[in-house]
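User: Hi! I'm working on a homework problem where we have to compare a predicted structure to a textbook description. Could you give me the structure for the chain below?
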Amino acid sequence: MGLARRLYRGEINVDFVGKWRLWYSLSGILLLISIAGLLVNGLNLGVEFRGGTVFSFKSEQATVQQVREAVLNEGAHQAIVQSAGTNGWRVTTESLPENTREQVQSQIAKDFNTPVGQVSVQAIGPSWGGEVSQKAWIGLGVFMLAIILYLSMAFEPKMAMSAIVALIHDLVITAGIYAWSGFEVTPATLLGFLTILGYSLYDAVVVFDMIKEVTAKLGHTSKMTYSMAANNALNHTLIRSLNTSLVAILPVAAILFIGTTLLGAGTLKDLSLALFVGMIVGTYSSLCVATPLLVTLKEREPKYQAIARRLASTGSGKGPKGSKSAAVAKG
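Assistant: Happy to help. Predicted structure tokens:
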């Protein structure tokens, strides 16, 4: 509690920039794990993308195993069973011919004492799923292009590049968690991905605006290197970033853990997982990926190398905990 109080009072100066090796290593490990998940497991695309048949009904006594057996026994080869709200069930299979769909519908009604008319059947063709996938990729591409154009106009190229790398970092890690968890990727998931891109961008813009303001004053007589100035700017926005993230994450966590686990709102988990993971990773990347990467690029410029050498020769180029801030440039 004492540490948290000091942090919120701004009494602690965290050396984010000086620990760039730690952040790069951590991000590298997370990216490798995420890419491995995408290669080994792949994304569990929902029926909206790959096509198939969806059966929905209500039953108080049904279990996952009973529902799966009722569907498989009538000719389906795959069956993904999910609870959908109070006493609700949703079964997704491969695309089935009309007669097989009717047999499965009748069997579900018989096994779970439900009128046939209350067992809804939705057939989604693969061509429609392919169209949805194409539109999803187009939407993601347009959104990324808009972000790149905005960053290019708002910031200098190195800032824009650092922010874009952080966005890609967030997307890959979130997608990797989906691959390892086996959660279905639905249109709601894509909405979550687009939302976290916007959230991550907002966080990076807040941090970079402060860095741009502080580092604009650096000159030949400055008493701070670019690393030190960027780290100070980051600490000035730290509480704002943490507060914004906490306020945003709490309701999403409620949807993910309480809504889907206790209340059975299974249709919300696709969106809430993307938001929950993306917000945490987005906050981390804006503090520990985008800014250290920016500093790594900027400290290589002759102007800032000269400042770092001058301060190092006078013994003034020390970071928050005595580590030389010019280490980023040397690394």
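For your comparison, note the following. The radius of gyration is 26 Å. Residues 226-259 form the longest helix (34 residues). Good luck with the assignment!
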